[in-house]
């Protein structure tokens, strides 16, 4: 029972970095930009968060530095793709490679160090509920922030005028331009937000979850986050489902063998990707419906006409 | 209607690479008038109104609005001054709802909480029925235009620019729109009205400015002119309209039998038991209000969606399961409704666009290789025969004006010598001279033994060219009858009447059952 409780707790924490990275990318893709540099922005956030937390002794300053690092990387991507009109796919891949390299250089002096665990917040009264209380309402602040962010993005996209403009730019940038919206400015803002989220996601990994610095420690999580956005068909609510499905499998593969079930861990590692392909097939199956999901201008360059 | 002009233009000039689109244009629009802007395709009308709406800026010249200098850098500035515009290629977002599209086209402070109620109110006041919750992607072209019109009306504009507003409306809808426009003008709003339909301009507009080749060639009162004299100002030469000939009918070339298909689009129209045939030499015109199954019927006829083998036959051969290329090989060519993106690839050159549909029938493709020489020659032939105005066949399809592109697409299909031609809205957004050319070409093609199916919302057009006539309403087709046995008014009433009296509202029913989409995706017939 005690072990089961610990596994459940681990499952709740495991997808938090994925949620941060994916919710940022969701906003970016809704604005019509495909940023494949998630892995690079995430690892930059990881090392920035880890090194600054360690040097300053302040967790808050560390997380802020991680967000800034991610946002800066996304800003570079934005200038290249939105202003200088470079290819989004190629630039995103370059950003990933750049991030992995720069973080390795930056992190040379930080191997073997460790940050202090983050204090957990007990939510008044709710945390006193037996079993459910400690499971759901005793966590560090970033866990709550992740959920607040998902709810906030959902609200922003469907209930605010700015969110409507963002979706409009992602759906038909020519029409948005004709009506008089600044397509490039909207996309730059979305990119910077997405970069900051990816940075925080990386920092959560290096300062809270692990908590130490290893080169390439994101280990493909940026790509999984990208898959989650597609899995979620660009809806924040479904994004949580996807993150827990994928994160849950990651935790499960650590424990399955402990329970004596005879299955190779590699098969479980493949599962999230197989599920993503399955979901892609399912949402692409009905043309009329997929049309209502994917932003129509996703990945297309915007040239202002006259 | 006298006093200072609401909008005054002087010396407006705009150059594009290789083209002088507007050359020293000057005229003025008085308050509360309906002012026509008349000209052939490529005369520079669209460019001019885009500058008035702030989408483009003139190279030279100045504009004054309400006596004050007016140089909008972006559309929101134009809207803030009281200028609204309905675009020819609509500026709508397919995956967003009607209400969201309306909100996007309005300035921030004008959008309130009760937008849905306002949309319903305005749309009912002006007889342009709209459901704010529907997605644009599920609306027909005619319904999309209503969204644009309502969007403008909600902002109480002082000048409303309308680019080809009636080309997709039925006579009744046109009458309603005209009532709306007259009401607006009596309330003091000026309207800049772009149309190719000379009769409309004569009944509606109090003033007309005629453009030709980017210059103002005439300024007149259209009510004192005849359609012929206006057309001559516009084109500079005399017009000849196609003559009605008695059809010389041959064998049945296109046969459709008991076609009943659910639409894959949750908001689409199901087709119910459609049967008809078109004989050699016959032009069957199918009329109907937008969104009554025209697009679905077209998809099934030309093979974009498959159905049962025997449901569609060309010259006796069942083709229901075959795709468009195979049907082309058997003699069926087609022109879809949407020019950019369906009829032509916008960013490809004209000769590349020729390859897409003519590669089998013109022998451009041989064993997987393309003979580009044939493609270029054929593209040149289309441009010359159909008098397409373009700087050359190397230019992208997108660079052509709407009417010129339509002439190109129609020409590309007709010059492939089809035995069956299916054509949707053949002259949407095409000027009178070009429309007459297209009509004449269609009639010649039919005379040569082809079977032609024209699906259009322009009744005058169908009355002018078709030899037999039917109406599609909520996915059902009326019995085809010889053209001329009914008047335009009777047919219009039939369309409207059938539309509301058939109780089983297919489109309303579909709207409520999105979850049915999975089974509809099979496209199962009957």
Question: Which labels suit this protein?
Answer:
heterodimer; A: 306 residues; mainly alpha; ABC transporter involved in vitamin B12 uptake, BtuC; two-stranded antiparallel ribbon; 14 helices; 2 strands; 71% helix; B: 526 residues; alpha/beta; Rossmann fold; 3 domains; seven-stranded mixed β-sheet; six-stranded mixed β-sheet; 18 helices; globular
What does this protein structure show overall?
- The complex is a heterodimer of chains A (306) and B (526).
- Chain A has a single domain (2-291), classed as ABC transporter involved in vitamin B12 uptake, BtuC (Orthogonal Bundle).
- Helix content of chain A is 71%, strand content 1%.
- Chain A has helices spanning 2-13, 16-30, 38-56, 59-83, 88-106, 132-136, 141-159, 161-171, 173-179, 183-209, 221-231, 236-255, 265-285, 287-291, and strands at 121-122, 138-139.
- Chain A has a two-stranded antiparallel sheet.
- With 526 residues, chain B is of the alpha/beta class.
- Helix content of chain B is 33%, strand content 23%.
- Chain B folds into three domains: 7-235, P-loop containing nucleotide triphosphate hydrolases (Rossmann fold, 3-Layer(aba) Sandwich); 252-331 and 418-520, 3-Layer(aba) Sandwich (Rossmann fold); 343-399 and 408-413, no CATH class.
């Amino acid at each position: 029972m005690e072990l089961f409780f610990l596994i459940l707790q681990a499952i709740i924490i495991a997808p938090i970095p994925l949620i941060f990275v994916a919710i940022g990318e969701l906003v970016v893709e809704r604005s019509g930009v495909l940023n494949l540099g998630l892995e690079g922005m995430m690892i930059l956030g990881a090392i920035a968060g880890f090194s600054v937390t360690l040097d300053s002794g302040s967790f808050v300053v560390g997380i802020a530095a991680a967000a800034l690092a991610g946002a800066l990387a996304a800003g570079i991507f934005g200038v290249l793709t939105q202003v200088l009109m470079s290819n989004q796919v190629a630039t995103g891949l370059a950003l990933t490679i750049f991030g992995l390299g720069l973080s390795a250089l930056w992190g040379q002096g930080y191997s073997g160090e460790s940050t202090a665990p983050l204090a957990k917040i007990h939510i008044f009264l709710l945390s006193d509920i037996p079993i459910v209380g400690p499971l759901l309402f005793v966590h560090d602040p970033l866990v709550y922030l992740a959920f607040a962010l998902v709810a906030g993005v959902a609200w922003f996209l469907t209930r605010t005028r700015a969110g409507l403009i963002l979706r409009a730019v992602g759906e038909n940038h020519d029409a948005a331009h004709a009506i008089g919206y600044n397509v490039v400015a909207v996309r730059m803002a979305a990119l910077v937000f997405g970069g900051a989220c990816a940075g925080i996601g990386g920092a959560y990994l290096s300062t809270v979850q692990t908590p130490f610095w290893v080169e390439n420690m994101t280990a493909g999580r940026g790509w999984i986050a990208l898959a989650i956005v597609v899995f979620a068909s660009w809806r924040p609510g479904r994004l949580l489902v996807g993150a827990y499905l994928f994160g849950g499998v990651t935790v499960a593969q650590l424990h399955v063998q402990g329970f004596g079930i005879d299955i190779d861990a590699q098969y479980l590692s493949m599962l999230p990707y197989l599920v993503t392909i399955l979901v892609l097939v399912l949402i692409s199956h009905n043309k009329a419906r997929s049309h209502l999901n994917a932003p129509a201008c996703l990945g297309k360059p915007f040239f202002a006409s006259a | 209607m006298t006093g200072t002009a609401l909008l005054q233009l002087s010396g407006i000039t705009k150059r594009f690479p290789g083209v002088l689109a507007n050359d020293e244009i000057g005229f003025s629009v008085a308050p509360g008038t309906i002012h026509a802007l008349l000209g052939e395709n490529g005369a520079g009308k669209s460019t001019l109104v885009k500058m008035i709406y702030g989408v483009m800026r003139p190279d030279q010249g100045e504009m004054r609005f309400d006596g004050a200098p007016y140089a909008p850098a972006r559309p929101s500035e134009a809207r803030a001054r009281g200028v609204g515009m309905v675009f020819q290629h609509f500026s709508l977002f397919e995956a967003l709802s009607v209400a969201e599209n309306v909100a996007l086209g309005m300035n921030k402070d004008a959008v309130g909480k009760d937008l849905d109620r306002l949309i319903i109110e305005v749309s009912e006041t002006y007889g342009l029925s709209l459901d704010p919750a529907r997605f644009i992607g599920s609306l027909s072209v005619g319904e999309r235009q209503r969204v644009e019109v309502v969007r403008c009306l909600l902002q109480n504009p002082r000048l409303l620019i309308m680019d080809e507003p009636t080309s997709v409306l039925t006579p009744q809808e046109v009458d309603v729109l005209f009532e709306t426009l007259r009401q607006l003008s009596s309330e003091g709003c000026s309207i800049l009205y772009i149309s190719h339909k000379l009769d409309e301009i004569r009944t509606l507009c109090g003033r007309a400015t005629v453009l030709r080749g980017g210059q103002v060639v005439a300024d007149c009162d259209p009510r004192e002119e005849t359609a012929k004299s206006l057309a001559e100002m516009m084109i500079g030469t005399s017009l000849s309209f196609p003559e009605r000939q008695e059809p010389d009918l041959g064998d049945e070339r296109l046969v459709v039998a008991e076609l009943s298909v659910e639409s894959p689009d949750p908001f689409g129209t199901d087709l119910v038991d459609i049967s008809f045939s078109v004989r050699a030499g016959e032009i069957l015109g199918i009329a109907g209000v937008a969104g009554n199954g025209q697009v679905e019927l077209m998809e099934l006829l030309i093979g974009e969606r498959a159905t049962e083998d025997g449901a569609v036959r060309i010259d006796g051969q069942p083709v229901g399961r075959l795709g468009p290329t195979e049907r082309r090989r058997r003699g069926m060519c087609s022109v879809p409704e949407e020019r950019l993106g369906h009829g032509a690839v916008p960013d490809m050159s004209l000769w590349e666009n020729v390859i897409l549909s003519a590669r089998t029938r013109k022998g451009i493709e041989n064993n997987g290789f393309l003979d580009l020489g044939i493609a270029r020659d054929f593209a040149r032939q289309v441009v010359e025969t159909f008098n397409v105005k373009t700087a050359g066949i190397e230019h992208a399809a997108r660079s052509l004006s709407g009417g010129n592109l339509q002439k190109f697409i129609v020409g590309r299909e007709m010059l492939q010598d089809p035995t069956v031609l299916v054509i949707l809205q053949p002259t949407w957004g095409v000027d009178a001279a070009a429309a007459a050319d297209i009509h004449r070409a269609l009639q010649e093609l039919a005379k040569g033994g082809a079977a032609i199916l024209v699906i259009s919302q322009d009744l005058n057009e169908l009355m002018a060219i078709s030899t037999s006539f039917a109406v599609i309403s909520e996915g059902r087709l009326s019995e085809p009858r010889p053209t001329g046995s009914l008047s335009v008014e009777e047919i219009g009433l039939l369309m409207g009447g059938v539309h509301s009296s058939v109780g089983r509202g297919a489109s309303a029913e579909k709207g409520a059952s999105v979850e049915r989409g999975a089974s509809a995706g099979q496209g199962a017939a009957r």
